[in-house]
Amino acid sequence: MIALVSVLLVSFLAPEVSAVIGGDLNCTMYNGTFFVWTPAAVACTNTISDASCAILYPTTDTLGYPAAGNNAVRPNACYTTAAATPAAVVPDMKTAALASCPKTCGYCCNTDAYNCKNVDYPRLTCASITTAQCNSPAWRTIIATDCPSACGFCGQGGCVDAVTNCGNDLSICQNIGMQDFVNTYCQKTCGRCPSTTTSSSGSVTGGTCTSYIADSSTSCSAWASNGFCTNTFYTYAQRRARCATTCRLC
């Protein structure tokens, strides 16, 4: 009985342990009780493996690493050289974390793809947008216009595919029976956004070459008429590899 009373007394007197985000509150929001991570804090991927990031940025927090809605403490090494929080932000430490392990450190919203201004009066609450909404055909185009920072749509001018697999088969852009679909769901891949649609001539001059490597695809003319040659969804190397002659890419 004495032992039981002692255990209860110790439990009662012991301080409550809870995670408190301290030091750098970037990518957090206040939920009325404490600061928690926004969905955009962890929406990106690390540029090196998650396992390597766990070694570089170890955590002892019982909640683990930052996750949408939790208040796990950001690993100190993500932003400071101090051993305890709260601590001052060391810019070089934060820069290194952003470059290699933004998801592990809860910094996705500070990366280029997630760091831009949303519209003043969005149709939904940008800070609470989930990964599921970012991938939803019902929401992607709205989010790209109103809340680009929530899903990594910064710098895309509001032009995204409503479905995520349009680029798996570019022939869909020219399939006669699929035009209504691509006009609605594959605007970026098929060059149907107002900012990426080019004239029907399809020929785009790039560089000062007098000759070009041969097109590797027989669909280049059709793709060019739909903006492929100037659509920055594809890298220069990708456009050149497929349609160097049609797009006049040196």
TrEMBL record:
Signal peptide extent: 1-19
UniProt xrefs under SMART domains: ShKT (SM00254)
Keyword field: Disulfide bond, Signal
Coiled coil regions in record: none
Gene3D superfamilies per the UniProt record, alphabetical: 1.10.10.1940, ShTK domain-like
Keyword set includes Disulfide bond: yes
Domain spans labelled ShKT: 159-193, 209-250
Domain of life: Eukaryota
Record keyword Transmembrane helix present: no
Disulfide bond sites: C159-C193
Protein name: ShKT domain-containing protein
Record organism: Caenorhabditis brenneri
Biological classification of the source: Eukaryota, Metazoa, Ecdysozoa, Nematoda, Chromadorea
